[in-house]
Amino acid sequence: NAGVMQNPRHLVRRRGQEARLRCSPMKGHSHVYWYRQLPEEGLKFMVYLQKENIIDESGMPKERFSAEFPKEGPSILRIQQVVRGDSAAYFCASSPGGSGTDTQYFGPGTRLTVL
Amino acid sequence: AQTVTQSQPEMSVQEAETVTLSCTYDTSESNYYLFWYKQPPSRQMILVIRQEAYKQQNATENRFSVNFQKAAKSFSLKISDSQLGDTAMYFCAFYTGANSKLTFGKGITLSVRP
User: What integer pLDDT is reported at residue A98 of this predicted model?
Assistant: First the structure.
């Protein structure tokens, strides 16, 4: 059973460009979570999605960031007009459901560098 | 709001010895879940162990065990017979049924010396 897949693993963008990060959850998982890890910090929650629905986006910056999880295909985290402060590792996790009984399993992360 | 505190930034242990990593948390919820995740140099986040707050028995997974003190809101990880592959950052995390997000501590860097 393949784990959570994320691509690309490394992404370099210049200031003002767009970054698209993809996440394919584990087979049978319909809940996806995005977290951001700044250097020397723990992971910070950004957004929680189910298929075609955003359930909780309380951790998402109000501007430039958006996320989706379409009926078909991977979940996408999109950052428009990137700035140097967006440089971080972005992790996706998935779970079978959204209840407290479900453990979140993480992908390998995408390291975004903004030049 | 929930908070997770890992006050030790780094620790070092000799191979084959035992080490304990500390974690405290704060919440007003009565039903919640606690986790330890490991992040090796590859930066992959790997689940080490999970504890349900309603269970009094401490969770164990092979060489990894926890000391869960609910009244003190303490959740420490004990690694027995440390191995070189245990070298990593370790994050304590917390999850309630009231929301779906994991709250992480800042992590502790563990180095296992040969």
Answer: 58
